[in-house]
Amino acid sequence: MGFDQMQSKVAHSVKVPRLYKVAATIFKNFEDGKDSVKNLVFNCKKHPNTKALFALVMETVNHRTQIDKATLKIELFVTEPRFNRHLAFVLINELIWGKQALPGESLPIQTVLKYKKRLKKSIDMEGGIDGRALDATWPRYARINTLCNNSHRIGKQLQEEGWMEVMYDKSEVDSKQFLKMVSSLKETQYLADLHITNLLVFPPKSQLYDHSLVKDGSLMLQDKASCFPVEALAPPPGSSVLDACAAPGMKTSQVAAAVCGDWEAALGGEPPAGAKVVAVERSIKRFGILKGILERSMSNGVTEVVNQDFLKIDPNSHADVEYIVVDPSCSGTGMARRGGGDEEPSTERLETLASVQTSLLLHALSFPSVKRVVYSTCAVSVVENEEVVAKVLEKAAGWEVVDIMPTWERRGLGEFSDGQKFVRALASEDMCNGFFVAVLGRKGRSKSKKRKHPLEDNEELSEEILKENSDIVMNEQLVEKVKKKKKKSKDNKCDLDELVDNECVPESNEVVDADIEVKKKKKKKSKDKLSETEESVCLNEVDNSELNDIKPPKKKKHKKSEAEESDNECVPESNEVVDADIEVKKKKKKKSKDKLSETEESVCLNEVDNSELNDIKPPKKKKHKKSKETEEMSEELSEDASEKQRKKKKKKDKVKCIED
């Protein structure tokens, strides 16, 4: 007799128990991808017993593969096409793995009971168990948050509440013995974990989420495997740590407690010097959850929260970071409490995840002062774990895998050279989520070289540029020297012109006036001792010639002839003299100071002054010296053909002046 025939005999007034109906609805919503089992259960207001509802749905999810295979084998839904699939899965789970009995006389319950024997024969009780739903059989873990409390006060409060700690010697207990101790815990007993510092282990089904120690942040409900990364990294008190993928914040709060040592934020005071945590989270939604957990755990006092993609963070902006936690998004194939199925992720998805994970780990190794980096996932696939580390080590020179957690027996895959240095956890055997952990350290523990300050880089760059362009700089210096020589020769030419002009105007009054005019112009000039001394020599020599009444006249004529040969003969008008002085003034401003020339001309000036006091004796030597200077200058200036023509005109004017 089929489902349709039974429907006519059983009164429709008999309803399915409410717990099963609500559980079936949540199970359907989960399979439709609306949310996680946990969120669906705790957001459901249709049944008061949340604990029973959550356990029932989780167990159904855990065994759905086995149920699906069994129903296909006995062709349940072919024979009973109107039977609700999700309700059938919930009832079968309860009958086989739950209470092993179904209450009531409703039609769905009677249908399942009818196929009970066939179902038991068809279900594979050994295989097909989903490693994501072992919550009901695992112990409850709670980490002591030393920022809010200490183990002594927590132990005292638990004792007052009726809890009893099981004491044991950690040095005489291995992992297998410890698991037996955990399995034998009674309802009011707890013990300290063998592998994780400050982690307490309570019996399965212990209700701790509403405990006062949990609410005030003294105890953090954190899975044992989730504590592995920070335990393996072991940052010392006073260190600076960055959490690259921080949300929801349990590992970040564990890091904050580690870097603060024995300091309790709840008691006030200051944390250890240098203690700092940088929590990076890309998602805005998870960023808010992260901040909430850090506030409750009192980790926010030493934690800087950054809402940014870790790959976009400049390593130089966190040059003080010594330790980094990289716990990126993964396939989650090791998680047992998320309520997932046993379907394996596709190869394409695994490769995409591994690519992102590799980039994150490589970026962490680029921080200038980092000493150790821990990489972890809640996945069991080799692609996301051992292979990622192997790829990173090929690209990152100077890094190696270091030994961690010596008391934990389960290690990485032996096919990899560093397999024994990795840590793995299996949900089906270790009473915690599946996990993978590896710690990379700098070879030889050498301190990384910090990137130089930009100013230092600029200085070195400028030095390199000078070296590369030294030839150009030398050429520029030579050109500058040539220019100075040319300017000097032109200035000397102007001085000679002034000298000849003053000799052609022998009257003492005119010479004195010219001297006064020259001195006025010198006040406006730039301080150039060379040019000043040259003009002084010229004027003083003219005065000397006047005092001697121009004796002997023949030699003076000879002197004039020498001046004519040097093409500097002229009797310019007063306006021409002023123009020449202005031109000289402009050129002298561009000259560089030449100390050697100053000293030589100063000696000449002193000799001229002494000759004036001694009635200019003997005058012949000075004229001879002067004639040599004029000859040298005339040789330099004789090359200019256009100047010769102009000066020839001046010669004619001078001759006329002499005749007059």
Describe this structure in words.
The N and C termini lie far apart (159 Å). The protein has helices spanning 3-9, 18-31, 37-42, 50-62, 64-74, 76-79, 85-96, 107-114, 116-122, 151-160, 175-183, 212-215, 228-233, 250-260, 284-296, 347-365, 386-395, 427-430, 454-468, 470-503, 508-524, 529-547, 553-565, 574-589, 595-613, 619-637, 641-659, and strands spanning 140-144, 164-165, 189-192, 199-202, 219-220, 240-243, 276-280, 303-306, 323-326, 372-377, 399-401, 423-425, 435-442. Helices cover 51% and strands 8% of the residues. Strands 6, 7, 8, 9, 10, 11, 12 and 13 form an eight-stranded mixed β-sheet that branches. It has a five-stranded mixed β-sheet with strand order 2-3-4-1-5.
